[in-house]
């Protein structure tokens, strides 16, 4: 029905405005990072589930199937900041998966434990990132060729995510192949004081 389409369209625009405001808020807050974080034991599986749940309307609307693999993993971090990072990556994954022509659209979130570290990977089968853009993904205001295609990119989400991970002592990196998809990795190092105090 036409009313539902209009409602969905308004709802989607509201979500975009909300995401934009959220990025602006976190951009303002990161300069006061040392006064605005609380280190605690955080179940990263809970954060992944919350991010998927908070984005379920978008996922359902665009027929994207998320899958979470891995077990409960406790990391020492700040809950709100790491939520922001994972949420940004998932929002990007949705955006660039919507842009693909593939019949089956997927986002896979995985937790793996290694010696001394926990690795969270977020993989999509979207349009991917061109090789020439890959090294600039975390630059402020960089949107890239495929970012301009979706016309929704601010170029700030990944820049902020990288800065936040750096402040929290996490590693954030990306692998991608144009036309195949993208995987972001967040590495949490165990058993040492990793925070820049």
From TrEMBL:
It is a multi-pass membrane protein. The keyword Transmembrane helix applies. GO terms for biological process: cellular response to phosphate starvation. GO terms for molecular function: phosphoprotein phosphatase activity; phosphorelay sensor kinase activity. Its EC number is 2.7.13.3. Transmembrane segments: none annotated. GO terms for cellular component: plasma membrane. It is an enzyme of class 2 (transferase). The keyword Methyltransferase does not apply. It comes from the Bacteria. Keywords: Cell membrane, Kinase, Membrane, Transferase, Transmembrane, Transmembrane helix, Two-component regulatory system. It is found in: Cell membrane. Residues 1-192 form the Histidine kinase domain. Coiled coil: none annotated. It catalyses: ATP + protein L-histidine = ADP + protein N-phospho-L-histidine. InterPro entries: BphY/WalK/GraS-like (IPR050351), HATPase_C_sf (IPR036890), HATPase_dom (IPR003594), His_kinase_dom (IPR005467), Sig_transdc_His_kin-like_C (IPR004358). This is histidine kinase.
């Amino acid at each position: 029905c036409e009313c539902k389409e209009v409602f969905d369209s308004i709802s989607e625009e509201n979500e975009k405005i909300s995401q934009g405001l959220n990025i602006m808020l976190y951009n303002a807050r990161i300069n006061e990072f040392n006064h605005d974080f609380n280190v605690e034991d955080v179940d990263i599986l809970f954060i992944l589930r919350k991010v998927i749940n908070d984005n379920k309307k978008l996922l359902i609307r665009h027929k994207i199937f998320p899958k979470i693999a891995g077990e409960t993993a406790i990391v020492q971090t700040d809950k709100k900041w790491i939520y922001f990072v994972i949420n940004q990556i998932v929002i990007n994954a949705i955006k660039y998966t919507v842009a693909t022509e593939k019949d089956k659209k997927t986002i896979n979130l995985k937790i793996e434990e290694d010696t001394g570290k926990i690795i969270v990977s977020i993989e999509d089968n979207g349009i991917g990132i061109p090789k020439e853009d890959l090294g600039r993904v975390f630059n402020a205001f960089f949107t890239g060729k495929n970012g301009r295609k979706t016309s929704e990119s601010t170029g700030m989400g990944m820049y902020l995510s990288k800065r936040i991970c750096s402040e929290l002592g996490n590693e954030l990196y990306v692998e991608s192949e144009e036309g195949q998809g993208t995987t972001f990795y967040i590495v949490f190092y165990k058993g040492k004081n990793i925070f820049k105090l």
